[in-house]
Amino acid sequence: MPRLDCLGFYNVVSEKGLNRMDFIAQPFADVRLGDFLQEHFADPQWTVFRAAVAFVKRSGTQHIRLPLLSFSARAQVVLSVGVDFFGTSREALTDLLDATPGGQVFVYRNNGPYTFHPKVYLFKSAQKADVLVGSGNLTEGGLFTNYEASVVTSLDLTIPTDVATLGLVESVLDTWSQTQENRCYQLTPEFLETLVASGLVRTEAQLQSMKQSLLQQTPPPTQGAPTSTGGTGSSAQAPQSLFTAAPVPPPPPVPAPPPVTALPATAPTPPAVVEDQEPPEAGEEPGPSEILAGIETPTLILSVLAVDLPVDGSSNEITPTKGIRNLRPQFWGWPDMFEGPDATTGQYRREIVVRYGNQVVNAYLQDFPARKPDGTKASADFRIGAIAPIVGDLVQEDDLVIFTQSDEPNVDYEVSVVRVGDPQHETLMNGTQNYTRSRSANGTVRKFRYIP
């Protein structure tokens, strides 16, 4: 008989005591799919990870990309993912590519009225294999918070029947991870752009916008209960909801982002107050900055406000403001490296490439005028956009984003995130300046510092 280990997690042990079968019922199991993956990535016994998954979103990859990157550095990784029904996002595929530099990611699709819909996860060593088959995709819901069910089978590879079972699993995974024209392609940055251009893969902001549009098009539920004659009257009371919301265990915290390069400490200095100002005159020294000894590469330390934090459907931007930009315009290449103004919007734009940890991100700098060429009002700000991996790692106001001009060819800035509470946060915050024209509703003021 199965033995109940915990709510939603059942265990069957063979007579030999080596192979077992577990049943995981999310979201209330002590071990959920996301926990299973994280624990296996950290276990040095596994030398191979293979998976076939229908849908992948950044909500899921943010929980596994760092453990997967460490695993990929020492072991073999082969993944197959689907792109049906817009269930997979551009950001998620980028995360998988970045987390498997020595591995392979394949995209499988049958263009007929059929869906690539498996959820299979395999870890293997010379002696053992763990195979999980269930309903959970690589999304936060699939990993932790959705109602999902999975069966985990542990195979002993000294037992012929277990070896045969593993062979069946691997043969199917092989079918989904072999390049085949019009059916299965290996994912590369170039092929990802092809998927985006074809419309099969979209950004998370686009997917959120599509979702909102569908919700707005859905007719509202009928208001009003049946009258005594069987009709529905406007004066009748609305029926009570058939279903209500109930809490489930939350997902664990997202693994910390790559650490910032250590910077020398300086004695705390009182924060200066800086107001909006026009760009410096030619030859004039830019506005005040605090210098950290030993840092020679131009660097900006910038705190974030609530408006910069990740929100579903947001455009993944940070707004340093024109005033901060104008204090050190050469740091941004302003205005010489910008194209514009746009004839319709009046905007200036510079395409940039930033490196964030192991990721290379195509981003942009954009200046918005106070008024468009036709005289209508505009937003009058300065933004860093298309930086979803960076925004996604921000948690609260006063988290710091560090921008350093890069010496790497074809990369403009190196970027790191230091959260409130991280060991270096207080040191980096010392000597920053308050920018009083940029503050949140609760009074938090944006802080910055240029180095040198």
CATH C-level name of the largest domain: Alpha Beta
CATH topology assignment of the largest domain: Endonuclease, Chain A
Uncertain parts: 1-18, 223-235, 262-294
CATH superfamily of the largest domain: Endonuclease Chain A
**Main sheet attributes: strand count, strand direction, barrel closure:** 10 strands, mixed
The CATH architecture of the largest domain can be given as 2-Layer Sandwich
Shape: globular
Helix content: 10-25%
Order of the strands making up the biggest sheet: 1-2-3-9-8-7-4-5-6-10
**From the alpha-carbon coordinates, what is the Rg to the nearest angstrom?**
26 Å
Question: Quick one: how many beta strands?
Answer: 19
Structural class: alpha+beta
Oligomer: single chain
The arrangement of helices and strands along the chain is: EEEHEHEHEEEHEHEHHEEHHEEEHEEHEE
